[in-house]
Design brief:
The chain is mostly beta strands and 120 residues long. 12% of the residues lie in helices and 39% in strands. It has a single domain, classed as minor pseudopilin epsh fold, CATH 3.55.40. The chain has a five-stranded antiparallel beta sheet with strand order 3-2-1-5-6, with helices on one face. A hairpin with a 2-residue loop joins strand 7 and strand 8.
């Protein structure tokens, strides 16, 4: 997930336009979108860039507990890699919480810089 968030951020920087990642908690799914909200094509599989935890055996034990970007489920990055929440405002706090068995990990996105990290 951290790599996919970084990919969206890097696309925004290299193409000079917004790209984002939208989470659907009830479906345990996320997708990478362009500036118009359209799901982009995965560069390798050539299918829609969507990740479904329930449908992928690699992630079957992992649950997306929370994805919050100032209370929205969408994070976008601008041409400088700066993060914005789903309302279009600069991000104040962004985090995705994942659990697997008894383990919990937090994927955080820093305001202003858009730096993405994984924390125990």
């Amino acid at each position: 997930m951290a790599v996919d968030l970084s990919y969206a951020r890097n696309l925004a920087i290299t193409q000079g336009r917004f790209f984002g990642v939208r989470f659907y908690l009830s479906q345990e799914t996320y997708q990478i979108e362009d500036v118009n909200g359209q799901v982009i094509t995965h560069p390798v599989t050539k299918h829609a860039y969507q990740v479904e935890f329930a449908g992928d055996s690699r992630f079957s034990r992992v649950d997306i507990v929370q994805a919050s970007f100032d209370g929205t489920s969408l994070i976008r990055f601008d041409y400088q890699g700066c993060p914005y929440n789903g309302s279009g405002n600069p991000l104040n706090k962004g985090m995705v919480t994942l659990t697997a068995d008894s383990e919990t990990r937090f994927v955080t996105i820093e305001p202003v810089t858009g730096v993405i990290s994984v924390q125990p």
